Amino acid sequence: MKTAQDFIIEVPVLKYSDQITKARQILRDNRFREVYVVDARKTLLGYIDLTDGLRVTATKSNVTVEGFVKEAPRVSPADTIEQVAKVMQNYETDSAAVVDSRSHIIGGVLLSDIFPVIISRNVLLGTVSGYMSRNVTIASPNDTIQKIYTMIMESGFTAFPVVKKKRIIGLISRRDLIRTRRVQSVIARHAHTTIEEVMSKDVITIGPDEPIGSAAEVLVKHDVSRLPVIEGERIVGIVDRHDVLRGLA
Predict the structure, then answer these.
(1) Domains with residue ranges and CATH for the chain
(2) Upper half-sphere CA count for residue 118 (Cβ side, 13 Å)
(3) How confident is the model at residue 181 (pLDDT cuts 50, 70, 90)?
(4) Do the beta carbons of residue 235 and residue 167 sit within 8 Å?
């Protein structure tokens, strides 16, 4: 039986006194959507995520991570990967910290690493329409980076399909905003640069009547975290890894 121990990776950690700009540098890495915060003894104190990394818009700042830390998802090395995934679902994160009996962090487990194994050895029941999120906010390619930044901060959503003439042409996410240093300065200046030049243009989609197992296979094959759900040319939902895991028998 696969456990957290089999998937532990070394994860970067922060201290309360570290600046938010340091967190942003780590979060630009495609592997990490959360960074864990520890004390001098490596006792787990919490985590910050991509949205927190965007909150301070200045390219240089003395603001520390302390004010942004949230309670962290934690698991033990002996927990099964299904248990680990459940913890991530409860916290709506893409990783979990692996800790010992003293709450000292050992490493982390990424959902992207355990997801292919979980779906390969479990039965997935139902269709995409039964598990997708139907509350979809769309963006226009002419929307400014500042507008998308505000939408992320206010809505809690992490990505938006970009639609032009009723057809999806891209996806704009927290990652797209944080990975480009120039974008940070644009947000800080409240400039009117549009999202078309920074959005992800290679978008994989799926239909609502497809089996949820097919969605899982597409997510793994293309190594993406979410799929817009298209009926005809209309967006009717979004399905992500957490949605798929709810389909486990």
Answers:
(1) 4-120 (3.10.580.10), 128-245 (3.10.580.10)
(2) 28
(3) low
(4) no
